[in-house]
Amino acid sequence: IAEHAQLIEQIAVERVQMELNKLFVSPFVARGIAAMRQTRLSDYVAGTFDEAQWQHVHIEDVQVGWAYFAYVSQLDAAEMARAYRLANKEKQFIAQVLALATNDDWQTMDYFHASIDVLQAAQHIRTCQSLPTESIEAVQAKKASLPIQTKDELAVNGQHVMAWHDEKRGPWLKDALAAILQAVVTGDVQNDAQQIKDWFMRE
Question: What are the tens digits of pLDDT across the range 4-53?
Fold first, then answer.
């Protein structure tokens, strides 16, 4: 295989992607990664194939596998997606996971903006890399404890804010709504229209 390894460049990227999909969730992933390197197939595809990074790694979700592969390869989501023609949904997932997996200090807004799947995937990667982590239960509890889970739950909208500010729609409105959202999520103000108005007028 090593003698003809370069021929993998003639295989459709989508086919290589499908094979890696299966490899990432295999119980013998480290062995498969080692085989990629030993046969020199890894010389002709993107990413770092280091079996040491995959020892004792157990992944059940293909998207998490791609995020972990991007992490150990030190490639960002755009580079990984371009190399293997991943879908935009997978690209976005990888980007969100990497942003958290490389961050030691998650803030309240991180829990708000990320889905529970992204949060759990980032924790899983940090566990695989022996980095400080919280339990999945603790992550779930923090996510669940937020005052609101989506922007749609905010008690006010742009119409309210424009009425309070007596100004036409413009870039300022997006900033104002972002500030209100953060204040509600972090608990600086309750998610109540009157209390938000009072807070906004003071600010």
Answer: 678 777 889 999 999 999 999 999 999 999 999 999 999 999 999 999 99
Q: How many CB atoms lie within 10 A of CB 57?
A: 18
CA-CA distance, 138 to 144, in Å (whole number)? 10
pLDDT digits (tens, 9 = 90+) for 59-80: 999 999 999 999 999 999 999 9
C-beta separation of 44 from 8 below 8 A:
yes
CA distances from 39 to 20, 190, 192, 194 (A): 15, 60, 62, 67
**C-alpha radius of gyration, the chain, whole number:** 22
> Do 59 and 124 meet the contact criterion of CB atoms below 8 Å apart?
yes
In what helix (H) or strand (E) does residue 38 lie, and over which residues does it extend?
helix 29-38
At 130, list the tokens. 């022996």
Global pTM value? 0.89
